[in-house]
């Protein structure tokens, strides 16, 4: 199936489960041609993992389509923040105080106020990015004090496990803090995520096909 059909199919499945879940089409490692196909099918919200790749792929397209909304969903190093702030419209991966500081400073410098999500390491996996759940409260207070615009939470549950308990735990955190956004669910589990309260799902391979990495 083509990208247009895949998008249609996923949107139908989303609509069957909920009225207003936002589909973030994850185009990492996929070509400009694939991205253009999704745009011509009406998709406007996209996710990329790497700052460099996003700049290369999206700078020109964003000039042409002013309604494109690009989300950063991969780990962000502080030395890439300036470029990230220049291209992304939402940053889903805030997970430490140092990053908060650099983001706030850079957004002031560029005159941009980009909404952000805090990424939670909900499975407490040592090698994964995201703030540990027990440190979330403190990081949110820090964001608030620093003036970073946090609109919600994001997570990637542990691979190869039933994601439902992790989704439920995230939903509880979202409610506890009264956030409007909860970004969770990928190609394999977005339906489950929506049933557990996701407001945004990040779907890649089910739209664009398999990727090398
Ligand atoms: C790659 C990626 C996705 C999309 O994954 P698929 O399984 O291809 O849908 C979603 N979220 C993050 C953070 C990713 O890195």
Residue share in helices?
40-55%
The main β sheet shows up as: 8 strands, parallel
Instruction: Please tell me the overall pLDDT.
Output: 97
Q: Sketch the topology as an H/E string, one letter per element.
A: HEHEHEHEHEHEHEHEH
Strand order of the largest sheet: 7-6-5-4-3-2-1-8
Q: Between the first and last Cα atoms, what is the distance in angstroms?
A: 21 Å
Share in β-strands? 15-25%
Structural commentary:
This protein has 213 residues and is of the alpha/beta class. The chain is built from nine helices and eight strands. Strands 7-6-5-4-3-2-1-8 form an eight-stranded parallel beta sheet. Helix 4 crosses helix 5 and helix 5 packs parallel to helix 6. The model has no long low-confidence stretch (mean pLDDT 97). The chain binds pyridoxal-5'-phosphate. The site of pyridoxal-5'-phosphate (PLP) has 14 residues, from strand 8 and helix 9.
């Amino acid at each position: 199936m083509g990208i247009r059909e895949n998008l249609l199919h996923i949107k139908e499945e989303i609509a069957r489960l909920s009225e207003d879940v936002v589909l973030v089409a994850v185009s990492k490692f996929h070509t400009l041609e694939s991205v253009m196909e999704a745009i011509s099918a009406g998709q406007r919200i996209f996710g990329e993992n790497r700052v460099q790749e996003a700049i290369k792929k999206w700078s020109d397209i964003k000039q042409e389509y002013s309604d494109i909304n690009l989300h950063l969903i991969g780990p962000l190093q502080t030395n890439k923040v300036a470029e990230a702030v220049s291209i992304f419209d939402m940053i889903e991966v805030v997970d430490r105080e140092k990053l908060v500081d650099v983001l706030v400073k850079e957004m002031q410098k560029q005159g941009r106020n980009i909404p952000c999500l805090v990424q939670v390491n909900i499975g407490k996996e040592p090698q994964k990015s995201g703030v540990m759940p027990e440190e979330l409260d403190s990081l949110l207070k820090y964001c608030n004090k620093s003036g970073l615009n946090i609109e919600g939470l994001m997570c990637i549950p542990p691979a190869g496990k039933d994601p439902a308990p992790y989704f439920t735990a995230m939903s509880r955190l979202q409610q506890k803090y009264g956030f409007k956004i909860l970004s969770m669910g990928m190609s394999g589990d977005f339906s489950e995520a929506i049933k557990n309260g996701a407001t945004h799902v990040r779907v890649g391979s089910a739209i664009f096909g398999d990727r090398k990495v």
